[in-house]
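Could you join me in thinking about how sequence relates to backbone shape in a protein? To get us started, please write out a protein record for me. Would you write everything just below, so we can both look at the same thing?
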Amino acid sequence: MMVRSILILFLAIGGLQGEFVAPSEVAPVIHREQVPLDVDRMSELASDLVSLAARAAVDAEADPSGGAARWRASAQLIVLAERLDAASGKTRRLRKMLVKGEDPSRLAGDGSKESLRILPAALTFMVGQSKKGEEQPFLQYLLDPLAIVLPGEESLSHRQAEGEEERWAGIVPPVAAYQPIPKETPANELASREEEVMEQEEEPVTEEENARIEPFTGGLIFPAFLSYETAEGGTETRAKLANLSLTLQSGTGNKPEIEVPDQKGKQVLKDGTKVMLTAMKRRHQEALVNSLKGQLAFEGGGGYLSRNQKNHLLPLAALTEAALTNAAVRPDTLVLGHLQPDGSLIAPVSPWQFVEMLLRKQEGAPKRIVASRELLPYFRSLLTMHEEGFFMENDVFLVERFDEALPYLLEGSDKDETIEALAQMAEIRRVGEEKRVSVFVANSHVLARLDALQELEPNYLSPRMLALRGHNKQPLQLSPEVLASQLEFCIQPMAGLPDQKARDVGRSLLEDTHEKCRAAIDPLAKYVALNERDLYEETLALINRLRTAARARGRLGEEEWHNSEMFDSSSYAKTFASMKEEYTLVRLKLAARTGSSVPSEVSQ
């Protein structure tokens, strides 16, 4: 397996003609303590640098003859982004894309300084500190690639160009290493070898041609939005920790037959099942997967809403893997993430709506949470909102790939390091029981143990977050992405109103919706950064429009109500129409940051 992986990597790098050379991931560059920015600003700056790195790679690809400097600048920016935010999924994706020769344009901005969120302000601040006589080593590292990707940047006058080669020695190779290398292997031969490697990589791990599985029943928990019928014949949406159960056995057919509930969201479930089965055929013998027969269901019923996207795919794949390997899933485990075809796990769309479900004290809530590493900023925001107790109550593990998640999901698969880390964490919880968490984790002895646990089990997030709180290094404000996702959650109760006619909406519905939205948005006010205040205020104004519409609805007279012309010109009709327009504009602004789409289901 290792040999095949190395060969695939070699072929992928060969496809780049030697133009991109991955920088070192471990060579020391700069310590975060030497960067004069807080945690949130570092994350924002890292995101800007990744966009610039992707743009530099796109430009280098378009100009092979003069792209060596841009390839190198891209590598330098990746290094800096990794040092600023080691947990950034965006940075890891770009590194992998460039190594594999994939098109990075979807991670690139438009290449202009104006499209960046914090870099211009950060440069101005660091240059100002430098003028005051404070040493700014990070600034010099940053100005080197900016000289290539933003040659008109005013701050470049402070760059010490003569020391560039020494600064980057052992971290990023010199420009000569990024010059195009002519391919020696004919393209058709390389393609043939690539196909051969892929065929080897996808060989079934099951050796018995006629192997059968034992009857299997299992379930995994994940946060979801489910649709239920009301007594009045309508539907309502409930946000809950759903138990996805799967029953499987060996059938006699030539293709797998997994039934899904005949209800709302059936097509989403069917599509996800097809993707999962395709992935299983890459991991197991095709004949074995084709023999599967069974059905999936949600405990307590409920229709699967499209706003969940394909978040059911990860628990479904884990349950199927357990059935095919004759394993059992842990009953107290929750999974959160979107499983990709290549086996990677990414954050779900609009993540906060799912993280918020984990905060609720629900009966039967799990104690172990396995989630995509891309959710780190959202879990970190719990510290901002003084919810550090969540990590004293739950064991949170962050992973990047399906294979990496399985040991945490299957019974008896924990590594020795995981077992030891959990045992030590259990002791910390025992001692800290009934103590105020923020005070308890600040104790020097507790902090030392929490710091040690991070080294013992790097995927274990709970001690890492508690240590941040103990060291008083938690972010004080929400990052732009987290804020946008939380604001989407705040206006979710309004989702169905734009599709309704003003005549069909009563005053009580408007008042109830306003109350729910304000209850969600009001606690965020103290965590909003100054440069994000406008977006927060615009969302708050939209929510308050509900109250204005409710009052106008209450003042609407019977004569106006029954006279169509008078109704259309009434204050209520105009306010309702204005609210619908504002809702669309706000949702578009938020979606631009979170990548979500306007859901069609009514959430009440």
Remarks:
- The two ends are 50 Å apart (CA to CA).
- The longest helix spans residues 39-62.
